[in-house]
C-alpha cells in the first residue's frame, strides 16, 4: 500500500528543525506521496542548526485546504514565526475542518495554540511547551506519539519513526479494527446507519436522565444531529443500492450495550459519548479513504469532521464536570452549535 495520488503540506519557516521537516518529507515521498514544503514567503530559509537551506515549493497564501490529504507542522523555531502569520492560521483552521490528519511534532503545536484548536484534545509535544498546551485547553500526554481524532503529535526527533508511521496509517487505513476496515461501501453504510440510530436513542435516553440542564441540552442537540445523519446516510444507501433500503439494527452503537438508568452520572454519559464520537470518526475516516464512490466519499468525510466537532463540544462539558465548574464559566460563543443558542 502506498500514498500515490495523496498530497501533503509541510509548513516551514526560518529556523525550522531540519530533521523534523525532512524525515517526514523523505518518508512520505518514499511512499509515493506528493509533498510540498510550504513557506510563509518564497524566500530561501535556513534550518535551526544552519545545516540546511530550503526553497519552499509553495507559499502559504497559495494553499487551499481541499487540495491536501494531510498537513505536518515540524518544530524548531519555525512555529513561533508561523503562528504570527494570519494566512497560515486561516489555512490550518480551514484544513482542521476537513477532518483530515494534522500532525505536529516538538514545538509544532504552538501553531495550533494560536489557531485556537486545542480545546479538549489530547496531545504530546516538546516538554518545554507542555504548560502552554495545557493552558490552551489540551490534555498533555508524555508518549512517543499521541493520536486524538485527526491530530497526531510527537515530542522530539527521537519519536520520528512512530510519528511517520502514524501519519502513514492515518492516510491509508485510519485507526480502525481490521474487521470493519474490510467492509464494502454498502456494508459500511448499513452499519453506519444502524449506529446513528443507536446513538440517537442513547443520547435521547441520557437527555431524559441526567440532572444538569446544560448536559441535557447537549445530548438533545446531538440526538437531533444523529437523526439528520441517519436520514442522509439512508438516502445515500438507497441511491447506491439502486433502490434497496438498509436494514437497521438500533442495538448496534459505539457506546456498546451500556444501559441508561437513573444511576448514570453526567460525567459517565459524557465519557461514553466522547468514546462513541471517536469511534464514529475512525469508522467514517476509513470509509472515506477506501470508498470508490465520490458521493459516499464526500458523505463519509463530512460525517467524520462532524463527529470530531461533537467530541470537542462534549469535551468542554466533560472538563467542566471534572473541574467542578459551570459550563458558562469558560465556554465561548463558538462552543454553541449554530441554531441552538437558546439552549445554552
Strand content: 5-15%
Number of helices: 11
Q: Rg, please?
A: 21 Å
Mean pLDDT: 88
Query: Distance N terminus to C terminus?
Result: 47 Å
Can you give a write-up of this model?
This protein is an alpha/beta fold and 344 residues long. It has 2 domains: 7-172, Class I glutamine amidotransferase (GATase) domain (Rossmann fold); 178-332, Ferritin (Up-down Bundle), CATH 1.20.1260.10. 48% of the residues lie in helices and 11% in strands. It has 11 helices and 11 strands. It has a 7-stranded mixed β-sheet, with helices on both faces. The longest helix has 30 residues, at 294-323.
Describe this protein with a few key phrases:
11 helices; 48% helix; 11% strand; Ferritin; 344 residues; Rossmann fold; alpha/beta; disordered C terminus; 11 strands; two-stranded antiparallel ribbon; seven-stranded mixed beta sheet; 2 domains
Helix/strand layout:
Elements: E1 7-11, H1 18-30, E2 34-39, E3 45-46, E4 53-54, E5 58-59, E6 70-73, H2 78-82, H3 86-96, E7 102-105, H4 109-114, E8 122-123, H5 130-135, E9 139-140, E10 145-148, E11 151-154, H6 160-172, H7 178-181, H8 185-207, H9 213-240, H10 266-290, H11 294-323
Parallel strand pairs: 1-2, 1-6, 2-5, 6-7, 7-11, 8-9
Antiparallel strand pairs: 3-4, 10-11
Helix pairs in contact: 1-6, 8-9, 8-10, 9-11, 10-11
